[in-house]
Amino acid sequence: MLIEAAEVVVTNPDRNFVTLRLTTDDGLVGLGDATLNGREQAVVAYLAEHVAPLLIGRDAHAIEDTWQFLYRGAYWRRGPVTMAAIAAVDVALWDIKAQAAGMPLYQLLGGASRTGLLAYGHASGRDLAELSDSIRALQAAGFGAIRVQTGVYGVANDASEVWDTAAYLRDLPGVFEAVRAEFGPSLPLLHDVHHRLTPIQAARLGRALEPYDLFWLEDCTPAENQEALRLVRSHTTTPLAIGEVFNTIWDYRSLLQEQLIDYARSSVTHAGGISHLRRILDLAALHQIKSGMHGPQDISPVGMAAALHLGLAIHNFGIQEYARHGERTNEVFRQSFTFSDGLLHPGSAPGIGVTLDADAAGRYPYQAAYLPIARLRDGTLHDW
Ligand code: EZ4
Ligand code: CO
């Protein structure tokens, strides 16, 4: 079975998505997500100019060899653009292989290790009343775990946020105290710091949040400095999650081997696909670290579906972020995955279970868009 066509589809039904579509000589179509929020066209060019021509005529079954060919053969290794492009090829090939086998992909990855995947949704509010409404709305939508964010320490507008670290550190424990008082001890609660603290600030926050029993504290420091986590870890038992901006196993090496975190945040889309993320999570498993795959709206339904197949199959699944897509996105990407009773399931369709409606995609052309930024009160650019 040979790869006959490799096309890159860019569409913006609710936001930009980049999708690789591979077609084989016997007519199977595989999809891979290559969306890199705010830098989408860099991956489009990488795929269309440098990867697609190399794929034509290759054996569609040779997933590992193609992965190594794109990683080692390029000479220039790692990086978000490269690894998102490789991920898209990898997932599209797994999609094809599973369709050829007539099975949902998770069966080829070892079969289901559980009945469904615990998902968490995003609650936020500018004050406690708004936050409480947001949590209730998520519970009504079926979520059994919730990420809690507040705007009490920063002022957000469309493109940037004024960030005050001291106010944040002062206020956040009180927010969790109020949420626990209202929603009880058993609701799993998560929080994302977005890389905004120094190690000593993060250590203090982790310790201050211990009474509220967080499921995890995410991206407490800019984690490209893996060694910084040693200090945080030595001061707090609040579980730590890191890795949504990582793209290879090398970014995780000391975090996993020294057991400095509890959850690995990488997505299939940004960490080299099913083949590479599985390697990261296997190393994590040796150190009792679980998956906590990134699942924001900027990961397409194709990337979400791939994550669900991997999450269902691995033993060390932890939790899946699920930001839910809008109606137009669901019209472009038809999905077999389901969400009920707080659990996601990839469904039983052969492959990854997502098809792309090309006519619908064509109705929503690319529009340039960027992530927001954060600045301190004096104008200094801060981490987002
Ligand atoms: O800022 O997905 O945990 N989720 C996050 C996200 C990220 C965006 C980046 O593309 O931190 O909201
Ligand atoms: Co995050």
Structure description:
Helix content is 38%, strand content 21%. The chain is α/β, with parallel strands linked by helices. It folds into two domains: 3-104, Enolase-like, domain 1; 107-348, Alpha-Beta Barrel (TIM Barrel), CATH 3.20.20. The strands form four sheets. Strands 4-5-8-9-10-11-12-13 form an eight-stranded parallel barrel, surrounded by four helices. Strands 6-7-18-19 form a four-stranded mixed sheet. Helix 6 runs parallel beside helix 7. The longest helix has 22 residues, at 80-101. The termini are far apart. The model has no long low-confidence stretch (mean pLDDT 97).
Produce the secondary structure layout.
Layout: E1 3-11, E2 17-24, E3 29-33, H1 40-55, H2 63-72, H3 80-101, H4 105-108, E4 117-125, H5 128-140, E5 146-150, E6 154-156, E7 160-163, H6 165-183, E8 189-192, H7 199-209, E9 216-218, H8 228-235, E10 240-242, H9 253-257, E11 263-264, H10 273-286, E12 290-293, H11 301-313, E13 317-321, H12 327-332, E14 333-335, E15 338-340, E16 343-345, E17 354-356, H13 358-362, E18 373-376, E19 381-382
Parallel strand pairs: 4-5, 4-13, 5-8, 7-18, 8-9, 9-10, 10-11, 11-12, 12-13
Antiparallel strand pairs: 1-2, 2-3, 4-16, 6-7, 14-17, 15-16, 18-19
Helix pairs in contact: 1-3, 2-3, 3-10, 6-7, 7-8
The chain binds (2S,3R,4R)-2,3,4,5-tetrahydroxy-N-oxo-pentanamide (EZ4) and cobalt (II) ion (CO).
